[in-house]
Amino acid sequence: MPVAHAASNVAGRIVFLDPGHNGANDSSIVRQVTDGRGATKECQTTGTTTDAGYPEHTFNWDTVLRIRAGLSQLGVRTALSRTNDDALGPCVDQRAAMANSVRPDAIVSIHADGGPRQGRGFHVNYSDPPLNAAQAGPARRLAQAMRDELVACGMQPSTYRGTDGLYGRADLAGLNLAQYPAILVEMGNMRNPDDAAVLTDAGTRARLADAVTRGIAGYLQMLA
After folding, report:
1. How many angstroms separate the CA atoms of 120 and 33, rounded?
2. pTM tops 0.90, yes or no
3. Known catalytic residue: 56?
4. How many domains does the chain have?
5. Among residues 1, 64, 56, which one has the least CA distance to residue 25?
6. Rounded to whole angstroms, what are the CA distances from 177 to 16, 94, 99, 163?
7. 177 by DSSP, 3-state: which?
8. Which one, of 172, 46, 191, lies nearest residue 107 by Cα?
9. Which of 42, 56, 149, 186 is catalytic?
10. pLDDT at 7 > cutoff 70
């Protein structure tokens, strides 16, 4: 079923999309910012690459543009944390503030992992233990909707992190600082040759973006 017909009653909803990492980096990314739980962490990290040198930040950017296009077909309004793939910033705490400022119905951050070489598969991260009501039930429902659509499109849940494609964690500032339902999707493991082949294929990225769009739309339908 085409994405444009995959959901109803979602037009006018707002989704904040975060293509993880930066297109460029300098020494400023090691500046410490709040992690949302009383400690600090680096402003940003460089992300990972495949063995062939395909950068995670470019995968994230390409995939988010596809997701934005799919959501636009459904009448969903979107905002992005960065507007290009060749510049520095913003920091993780700034991205969370940007997301909260648009009062979105959902916040979705797209990444690809740099996990152990033998590990495969995606995992959907959410803040745990939750710090507010949005991080409790709503974020977990968003994570489950996303997991289900990624499985439905043929993606394998992570063999090395989380359980059944879901991973509650306390160390991601963007999720900890979210005042609205937020997840971070690690679409696969770039350090695994099989996953890398999937993530670097443009046709597969289109299929993954469709699945993410369906996951978001499925969650938004729950709000209708």
Report:
1. 31
2. yes
3. no
4. 1
5. 56
6. 14, 10, 10, 24
7. coil
8. 172
9. 186
10. no
